[in-house]
Each structure stands twice: as C-alpha cells, then as structure tokens.
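Figure 6 in text form: structure in, sequence out.
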C-alpha cells in the first residue's frame, strides 16, 4: 500500500481527500476540502469517488484509512494512505475545517 505524510499531502493543492472517520469525528475538525465517507460506507460509495487520479485517504491516526485504501484498491481505485492521519495534520499546525 502506498503512503504519504501530511507534509506531502499539504503540498498537493488539488488533492482528492476522503476522510473515513465517523461523522461526529469529521465534524470536530477535518482537513480542508476532505469529503467524509465513513469506513463502513466506503465500498458502497466507491463509485462516487473521482478516480481520474490518486485518492488520498485519511482518518484519525492511519489505521482505518489503511483498511479503506485496501477496499478502494480492490475496486480499482488508486488510493494512498495518509500516515498519522488528522492527528498528525493538526499537530503540524495546519488548519482544519469543522
């Protein structure tokens, strides 16, 4: 599975980002522009994801997003796990949306 750091993700201004946390977690703060699709719904919504390029998947720490990347890969989507997740994004001092 491919992985990327939050620093590398921040350097991609037009990145397609999927946040696989639960809606309440997402509402508490997420990477600007990230779309919320909870892990349990990823397979059902995979056809709604823009697959013309790489999809970056994030959660709180990187575990759920790793599982989501596996599910998306099985659907033919090039998905990259964001290591450290939203926790690392916030710890780096980057802004979040709520």
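Output sequence:
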């Amino acid at each position: 599975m491919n992985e990327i750091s939050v620093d590398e993700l921040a350097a991609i201004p037009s990145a397609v980002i999927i946040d696989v946390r639960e809606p309440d977690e997402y509402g508490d703060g997420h990477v600007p522009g990230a779309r919320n699709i909870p892990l349990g719904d990823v397979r059902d919504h995979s056809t709604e994801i823009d697959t013309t390029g790489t999809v970056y998947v994030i959660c709180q720490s990187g575990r759920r997003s790793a599982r989501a990347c596996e599910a998306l890969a099985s659907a033919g989507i090039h998905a990259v796990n964001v290591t450290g997740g939203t926790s690392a994004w916030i710890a780096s001092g980057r802004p979040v949306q709520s």
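Caption detail: The first helix runs from residue 6 to 10.
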